[in-house]
Structure formats: structure tokens, C-alpha cells
């Protein structure tokens, strides 16, 4: 099998850096490709990100290395970020060596019934990702491209689930942000990014809020083909003033919860994550102390795993709304 990406042509069996044998292909992007490799010296499997020979991409790779160097002081496992090993040059390509993880959150969701997750999994995933953002903030780094595709499940068979944040290709120091910088992915960008305003770490919290909704429903909260579509949907849903109440009838998404109390607490958290004013958006530290993560909540309002209930505790539904079956956007308007 040969994988060609513009100026890259790599096939299974190719040796990268002299001793990393390509065993498979894990993904691709505007930067190049990610390969699964075996270190022929240690027999250890790793993920190698091979950047294309494009000058602009190479410059971006150098910036990613600078960011990763800043993160070396953090404990990758404790901070829920991918372990970066080192980098090497192969020909004209910059190659980044990372620990090998299992599968991205998009694929993990796709493998599940109804393409969404139960509260028993959503809670630890959000807690771990918030933990990652908290530690990134401690060293002044904005990830700038948080989405399910950049969140990896360490081992899909491990319980409780563990996730790590990957891909720092668009990450930047908060102190060097320039208004209008092109960061993020359509559908996950914060409003201030889409309109070209100055931004900071708060854009990652907005993205995490959208990821949370997608985990719960199986659908993107603000779908769109481009920033204009998404921004239009946000304004229609939330209005322009930062303190506008969320209220929209334009979505067909409904969620069903095992207990209304859990739903209300979850929705209150999402509302704070998706505050239009970044200065009013909830911070990682505040999220970690939010009632949604209170152990007593799950005890007082138990919610069993969907795999054992056929998904009845939390599913996407087309049925008319009832007390236990509320449109997600509409439920944001409830106090």
C-alpha cells in the first residue's frame, strides 16, 4: 500500500529516520500524514507525524515543536495530553514522534449505538479534557483546534475511559495571538475567531462545549459548511448580546435523560461553556468544580450505561418534547 500526499509518497515498509518502519496509516491532514511505525531498535510502536515539504507547513511544524518543547515540563499522563517523544528529519520532511494511542473520539462515537455516549462516559471525558486545558493554560498555551478528531481514546477497552488531547499544529502562546489568525475547524471555532477578533484560551472552552453536546447527542451543535453558516446559526440561536438567552426552534435534536436533574446540571454547564462573551465564559478551574462532576449527583440521579439500556437514558429523538424529552436548544432556555 502506498500513501501519496502531494509531495509525500510513503508505503508500508518504508523506513523513516533510518529505523522507524511504517506499518500502517493513521490519518492525514493539510500538514501531511500520520503513520503507525515500529522502532526497529526497540520493537516499540509509535505514531509518526510526517509533515510535507511545503515551506509554510515546515514553518508550522517548527512552531509545533516549540509548543511541544514548552509542554515537556508537564506530565503527559496526568495532564491528559499526548506524549511527545522527539522529532527527526527524514529527507526534507520534519517528522514528529508521539506515543501510539487507540482511536479518535469521532471513531469511538461512531462505533457506539445511536452514535452518542452515556453520562457515565461523558463525565470522565469532559473532566479529563478540562484538566488538559487547565494545564495548557498554566503554561499559557491555546490549543486552538479542539474537536473530536483531535481527542484520542487511549484504550477503547479500558474502564474507566481515558482520553488525551493531540495535535498541537495550530497551538500558540496566548501572548502571541494576532487578531484574524486562522485557527480551528469549521463548526468548532469560537465566535471571536470567526469574526477575526482578539482571542485567548477561552476559545478552547467554547470548542469543548460543542464537543460535549456532540458526545451527548451524536450530532454537531452548530453544523455548517463554512464560518458564515455557523456564525449565522449561532446568532439565530443565541443572539448577538453576550447575555442573550439561548432559545431556538430550528433544530430537530432532542435528548432523553434518565433523570431531569442531570439534564439541568449538564445544560447549565454547556451554557457557561458557550457564553458568547469570552470574558464571561467558564474557566477550566471553574468547570472542574462544577456540580456536574459532583459524585453525589450520580448517586441521587443514577444514569445507567446505554449499552445495557438500549440507549434509553440519553438518545437523539424525533419525538415531540415532553418533560423527559426536550430539544437541547430549548432546554438551554430553562432555569
Model description:
The chain starts with a strand and ends with a helix. 33% of the residues lie in helices and 20% in strands. The longest helix has 20 residues, at 119-138. Strands 3-4-5-6-8-7 form a six-stranded antiparallel beta sheet, with helices on one face. The protein has two domains: 2-99, 2-Layer Sandwich (Phosphorylase Kinase, domain 1), CATH 3.30.200.20; 103-331, Orthogonal Bundle (Transferase(Phosphotransferase), domain 1), CATH 1.10.510.10. It contains twelve helices and 15 strands.
Keywords:
15 strands, transferase, 12 helices, 6-stranded antiparallel sheet, nucleotide-binding, 3-stranded antiparallel sheet, Transferase(Phosphotransferase), domain 1, 335 residues, Phosphorylase Kinase, domain 1, protein serine/threonine kinase activity, alpha+beta, 33% helix
Amino acid at each position: 500500500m502506498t500513501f501519496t500526499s502531494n509531495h509525500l509518497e510513503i508505503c508500508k515498509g518504508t523506513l523513516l529516520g533510518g529505523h522507524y518502519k511504517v506499518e500502517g496509516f493513521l490519518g492525514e491532514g493539510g500538514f501531511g500524514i500520520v503513520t503507525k511505525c515500529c522502532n526497529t531498535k526497540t520493537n516499540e510502536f509509535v505514531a509518526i507525524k510526517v509533515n510535507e515539504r511545503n515551506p509554510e507547513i515546515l514553518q508550522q511544524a517548527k512552531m509545533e515543536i516549540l509548543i511541544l518543547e514548552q509542554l515537556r515540563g508537564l506530565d503527559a499522563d496526568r495532564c491528559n495530553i499526548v506524549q511527545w517523544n522527539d522529532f527527526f528529519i527524514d529527507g526534507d520532511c520534519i517528522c514528529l514522534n508521539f506515543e501510539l494511542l487507540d482511536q479518535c473520539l469521532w471513531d469511538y462515537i461512531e462505533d457506539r449505538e445511536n452514535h452518542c455516549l452515556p453520562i457515565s462516559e461523558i463525565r470522565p471525558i469532559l473532566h479529563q479534557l478540562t484538566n488538559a486545558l487547565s494545564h495548557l493554560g498554566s503554561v499559557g498555551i491555546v490549543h486552538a483546534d479542539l474537536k473530536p478528531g483531535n481527542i484520542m481514546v487511549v484504550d477503547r477497552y479500558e474502564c474507566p475511559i481515558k482520553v488525551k488531547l493531540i495535535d498541537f499544529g495550530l497551538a500558540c502562546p496566548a501572548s502571541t495571538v494576532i487578531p484574524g489568525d486562522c485557527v480551528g475547524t469549521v463548526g468548532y471555532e469560537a465566535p471571536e475567531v470567526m469574526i477575526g477578533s482578539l482571542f485567548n484560551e477561552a476559545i478552547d472552552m467554547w470548542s469543548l462545549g460543542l464537543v460535549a453536546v456532540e458526545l451527548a447527542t451524536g450530532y454537531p451543535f452548530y453544523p455548517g459548511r463554512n464560518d458564515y453558516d455557523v456564525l449565522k446559526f449561532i446568532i439565530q440561536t443565541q443572539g448577538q448580546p453576550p447575555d442573550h438567552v439561548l432559545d431556538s426552534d430550528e433544530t430537530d435534536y432532542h435528548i432523553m435523560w434518565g433523570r431531569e436533574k442531570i439534564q439541568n446540571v449538564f445544560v447549565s454547564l454547556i451554557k457557561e461553556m458557550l457564553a458568547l462573551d469570552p470574558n464571561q465564559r467558564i474557566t477550566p478551574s471553574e468547570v472542574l468544580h462544577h456540580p456536574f462532576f459532583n459524585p453525589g449527583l450520580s448517586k441521587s440521579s443514577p444514569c445507567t450505561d446505554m449499552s445495557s439500556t438500549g440507549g434509553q437514558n440519553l438518545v437523539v429523538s424525533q419525538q415531540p418534547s415532553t418533560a423527559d424529552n426536550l430539544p437541547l436548544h430549548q432546554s438551554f432556555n430553562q432555569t
